[in-house]
Amino acid sequence: MARSKSSDPTAPGGDAGRTPKDGGRTSGATATGSGKSGRTGKAPKLDKNGQPKVGRLKKMRSQGSMIKQAYGLTRRNDPKLPWIMLIWFVAAAAVVELIGILLGAPFLFIPLALLFGALAALIVFGRRAQRSAYTQVEGQPGAAAWVLEGMRGDWRVTSGVAGTPQLDAVHRVLGRPGIILVGEGSPGRVRGLIAQEKKKIARVVGDTPIYDVTIGDAEGQVPLKKLSTHVMKLPRNLSAAEVNALGRRMSALGGPRMPVPGGPLPGGRQMSVSQRQVRRR
Q1: Which residue ranges make up each domain of the chain?
Q2: pLDDT for 211-228, tens place per residue?
Q3: How far apart are CA 240 and CA 254, in angstroms?
Q4: I need a labelling partner for 84 at 20 to 30 A (CA). Which of 163, 169, 224, 257 fits?
Q5: Of 29, 38, 128, whose CA–CA distance to 77 is shortest?
Q6: CA torsion 257→182→151→74, rounded to 10°?
Q7: How far apart are CA 215 and CA 221, in angstroms?
Q8: Is-above-0.90 flag for pTM?
Q9: Smallest Cα–Cα separation from 74: which of 268, 274, 233?
Q10: At 269, is the secondary structure helix, strand, or coil?
């Protein structure tokens, strides 16, 4: 007996019954594709301090802008700067080219002569920029603190740990030599401030060496432009671990007890450029 086909129009038949299966594969592929596309966004690279890395081109532009600004500030206080840089450029390039002529290869030495000339001009610019920065800040309140905070290395500076209404100030520096107290202002008043601060610190640091420096040009004093060199030449009496331990003990002394000007020059932008010039030396 022959079986009759179902006449129910709602019943799936043929390929229609396999549609959900094919559709399942399609949706799965779509989901996989969307998952891959979600993973294409790369996380930004971080430097050793955990900050996003700055591209080389952007860094070069920033440095170029900083040098240009420093050049403008230095030239404003040193009008002879362009001519002095030009003289050093020509002199250094001429010496190198003369060596090339003596060796019988003048054309080969031209790039080297230009390189040495540019290097000589940059060195002269750096030194005169440093001198100009010190000239601007010398004799102004907060100048010593500004120099100390610009020193390279692990120097923990606390500005204005003691002072007077006449803007005499004592700054405390913690580093490998020990404790350095730097006073600026009237020598008579500064000596008393340093003596009081020494007694206070000695109760906390024990046998740790304590040095005192007074800024000035008289005998026994240190000129402002030689302050960073003087501090860096002090003997290394402590290890890095001892400096850290001493820093924790000295936290009991507290921070600054008098307001110190944020910078001897008006305008933070000019101050930051000059400070970077000093820091490079």
Answers
A1: 59-137, 143-259
A2: 999 998 888 889 888 888
A3: 21
A4: 224
A5: 128
A6: 100
A7: 6
A8: no
A9: 274
A10: helix
